[in-house]
Structure formats: C-alpha cells, structure tokens
Design the sequence.
C-alpha cells in the first residue's frame, strides 16, 4: 500500500478535524483510486482528470462538508454526468469507490468526523447513482439519505 509524502499517523490516532487531515485523506484516497483496476481507467482515460487541479478542489469540498469551511463552489453532479456520457457508470464502480474511501478513512482516523465522512461518501455515491444512472445504490452499513 502506498503512503503519501506527509507524516503518517497510527491508525485511529485522531479524527478528520483539520484541513491537514482532510488533505492527507484526499491524497491517500485518490492515490489508491488512480491505481485501482476498476476506477483508475475511468479517472485517467475517460475523465482525463488533471490531478493537480482536481485534488485542491476535492480538499476544499471535504473541508466544506466536514469542517464547515468555505471555499468549494463546484457542481459535482454535472461533472459526473459528463463522464457517464462517455462511459456509463456501473454499480461496481460505486462499490469500489466507497470501499476505497472507507479503507482510507479507517486506516488513519477514528472519531465522529471520520464517521460523518464515511456517511457522507455513502450519500454522495447514492445520489450520483440515482441521478446519473437512474439506479439505486446503497452502501453496506449506511442508510441512504433522501
């Protein structure tokens, strides 16, 4: 497993309660996504994600969600609709994205904000699946938010 260039904390040594922690989560998680057999080609070849541009936006997004900080002003639905038009999303893509996200959180963080992050990730995946593919998707262990 790859480790980001930042200082690695022991599993469960803190919560996702700072911009630094959110940064580390996003970098760790998307490094795994980019190298994943299921998701890597979607991000790299279909969406042609420019990680230098995308990672700061993702950090801002998660800081808004978890830390209530301003800064993110994107539209996640529109971006995912464009990718889906090029290559339709499949349920296993949502499963894998969520699995990697939970693993990234659980590898280094524990606490209420960490749990909120995992619940929000489940909500995002469910919303995108419904709105982009028309299919219901549910994460094991997390109820679907309306």
Sequence:
């Amino acid at each position: 497993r790859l480790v980001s260039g930042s200082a690695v904390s022991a599993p469960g040594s803190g919560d996702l309660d700072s911009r630094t922690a959110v940064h580390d989560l996003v970098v760790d998680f998307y490094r795994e996504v980019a190298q994943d057999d299921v998701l890597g080609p979607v991000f790299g070849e279909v969406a042609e994600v420019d990680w230098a541009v995308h990672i700061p936006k993702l950090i801002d997004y998660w800081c808004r969600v978890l830390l209530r900080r301003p800064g993110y002003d994107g539209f996640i639905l529109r971006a995912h609709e464009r990718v889906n038009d090029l290559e339709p999303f499949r349920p296993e893509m949502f499963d894998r994205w969520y699995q990697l996200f939970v693993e990234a959180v659980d590898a280094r963080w524990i606490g209420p904000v960490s749990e909120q992050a995992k619940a929000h990730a489940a909500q995002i995946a469910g919303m995108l699946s419904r709105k982009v593919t028309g299919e219901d998707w549910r994460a094991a262990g997390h109820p679907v938010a309306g």
